[in-house]
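Batch job 17 of 40 flagged for manual review because the log was empty.
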Amino acid sequence: MQRRTFIAGLGAVSALPLTSRHAAAQEWPDRNITMVVPFPPGGQADLAARPIGLALSKLVGKPVVVDNRSGAGGSVGNAAVARAAPDGYLLLMTLSSLAVLPEADRLYERPAAYEVDQLAPIARVLADPTVLAVPANAPWKSVADLVADAKARPGVIPFGSSGPYGTLHIAMEMFAAAARIKMLHVPYRGAGPAITDLLSGQIQALASAPGTLKQHVDAGKLRILANWGNARVPAFPEVPTFIELGFKDVEFYIWAGLFAPRGLPADVTTKLRNAMRDAMRDPDVIRTFESAGSPAAYQDTDEFSKFVAADSARLVAITKKIGKV
């Protein structure tokens, strides 16, 4: 398991007032908070966690430790938080694959590592349509070029993912099924290592969030062929959507959101919810996301809970349709 830890600085901002010192829940937080990212550094969840961790540290007055616990496409980190004590000291910044991974376990008749209802949504942070990237020196200038080559060489062109049935894998399988092509799946522990190998030419295609790719596109190292959204991405306005290109059912979004173990005390939930609201207004957080090409897409707890339920149902249906791969 790859694991990396980062401690967010406190800065000089005073802590939120604590209303009582009588109950343990009311004293939250009285020690460091760990925010688990279930992927290696360099991906969308990591992009979301680090500026949020810094902002939360200033707001609640205790360090927020960003802990990369990668493995099994995100299942290892997701499960660790799902099984944790609901005390507000172990949180999860995860992606839309949250609902897909237990369904994938069921497809292969394995016990699910966790269930979505073991986790309580706190706030959505980012929500981007996935984009399709290839090396700048690749021969394909369009999706049509890639499809024609893949049909001529079925199962040969390697594409990366964040792990089997992770967000990046599901997006590519949707496209491949719609285009009636077969490519070679090369799974990684997360988007960060996959991007490294895309840049070196070890793989030839990758679906990922705009914010993880923009710097490499700007540097002339990668080319974006299409996006999985229902509108063009502001960071890449010249890039068409798959829907524009005639793939009407190829639509996928990679969102990042904060969760806690189900059963978090109400007063801790309120403090965390309020702190997240303020963190998402922090100019440094906004600037970091915008400069990466992934504008903030905040949803508070109630709205995010409804969003997760609807998106999970849609992704589970897609996973069942794709089946074993």
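Reviewer: the log was empty due to a logging misconfiguration, but the result itself is present. The chain is about 35% helix and 20% strand. Unflagging and moving on to job 18.
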